[in-house]
Specification:
single chain; 10 helices; 30% strand; alpha+beta; globular; Double Stranded RNA Binding Domain; ten-stranded mixed β-sheet; 19 strands; Rossmann fold
Length: 387
């Protein structure tokens, strides 16, 4: 029979070899905290078009440990309600809660640059595994964790208690932070947000750090590490790529319906300078979200099987529809905002600057705006006003 402690040591060794796990104190936490204890009652395994439920009680101990320490993200809820113990066969659905892959969890904790005296606010408890790691490192009284989903919060709280951890678990809207235990030295979010809520900045001590994923697409999002200043602003780099589920209150409703009908009347039509297919790549997708923060990128197929690409901004009532003859692309744009003009302008300037990676982007947050820029490309600056 597989020994859980040896599985934890094996996972820690793997994370060290990948350069993710660096701190001895965090390695001790990874080797001490049982990930499998935070996956009950079960998980959904991705089978392409469906999710296969796996229940801990119906799985051999060795198989369950193999799943728990597979260093993959393990989905624990679909569609905001469904857990693996509620179904008996593969189902379709949208993941709404998960145990994030340990490399991402550990990497984010390392990025926080923690000291043992730090007080941390975690936005998005999820299963409670990352909360347990933080508590092991900092102590129970120094960690506050907020989860918007009451059922998810209850399961996490039960798992933490079963592990002997009695920390500050709160059910509520994490976008509002948790002012009752502020100020914090660190705020870390395990969900993606369209913009960093100013409440997180306000509840962080000057000199403290806010770490969160910005962006609203499933890809092309970045991990912002912001230092909070004495003047109530926060500034820092996008330190790398990051992918999390969207915060519930900011989740985007996918554009649906007859897309060709929605793009019937265009105000302009022209050849593109850049292929819209670049939006399937991480950095161009990130730049597109900076240029047109309310837009969605949609791929579809027409009745003849021809691939169709679109940008839609429902709030601005604007669209860009792309057609190709196999050699070049044509864009048709409609509505008050020429979406592709704004995106393409950024992409061309980015290419002219040598196509720097996502860690070249900086962000400054004030009470009224988010300002992004790239130092080596003076024309690449975006300001998103908060209304």
């Amino acid at each position: 029979m597989t020994d859980p402690a040896s599985e934890r040591r094996r996972m820690a060794t793997l994370l060290v070899s990948e350069g993710v796990l660096k701190s001895p104190w965090l390695r001790a936490a990874v080797e001490a905290v049982s990930r499998e204890g935070f996956l009950h009652p079960g998980v959904f395994l991705d089978e392409g078009r469906t999710w296969r439920p796996v229940i801990a009680a119906d799985t051999t101990p060795d198989e369950w440990l193999k799943i728990a320490y597979s260093v993959d993200t393990l989905t624990t809820q679909l569609d905001g309600r469904l857990t693996a113990d509620q179904v008996g066969e593969p189902v379709v659905g949208v993941p709404t809660s998960s145990s994030t892959d340990p490399a991402t969890v550990v990497g984010m904790i390392e990025t926080l640059d923690l000291a043992t005296s730090h007080r941390v606010l975690e936005i998005g408890t999820g299963t409670g595994y990352s909360t347990a790691l933080l508590c092991h490192c900092l102590g129970e009284d120094n960690v506050t964790t907020v989860e918007v989903d009451a059922q998810v919060a209850a399961r996490a709280d039960a798992a933490l208690e079963a592990a002997g951890i009695s920390t500050w678990t709160v059910t509520g809207d994490g976008l509002l932070g948790h002012p009752y235990r502020a100020p914090y030295d660190r705020v870390v979010a395990t969900c993606a947000v369209r913009r960093i809520p100013y409440a997180w900045i306000r509840q962080t001590r000057p000199g403290g750090v806010v770490l969160g994923t910005v962006g609203s697409w499933p890809w092309g999002t970045g991990l912002a590490k912001l230092a909070v200043g004495d003047d109530g602003t926060a500034e820092g780099p996008i330190v790398g790529r990051s992918s999390f589920m969207q915060a519930r209150d900011q989740a985007v409703t996918p554009v649906a319906g007859d897309l060709s009908a929605r793009t019937t009347y265009a105000d302009s039509e022209r050849r593109t300078q850049v292929s819209p297919l670049v939006l399937e790549e991480w950095m161009p997708a990130f730049l597109a979200q900076l240029a047109v923060p309310g837009a969605q990128f949609v791929r579809a197929t027409d009745g003849d099987g021809l691939s169709m690409l679109y940008l839609f901004d429902p709030e601005k009532e604007s669209f860009a529809a792309f057609l190709t003859d196999g050699a070049s692309w044509t864009v048709r744009q409609g509505g008050p905002v020429a979406l592709w003009d704004d995106v393409e302008r950024s992409l061309v300037a980015w290419q002219d600057a040598g196509a720097p990676e996502i860690d070249s982007v900086r962000l400054r947050v004030t009470p009224v705006s988010h300002r992004y820029w790239i130092d080596q490309a003076p024309s690449l600056r975006w300001e998103h006003r908060i209304v």
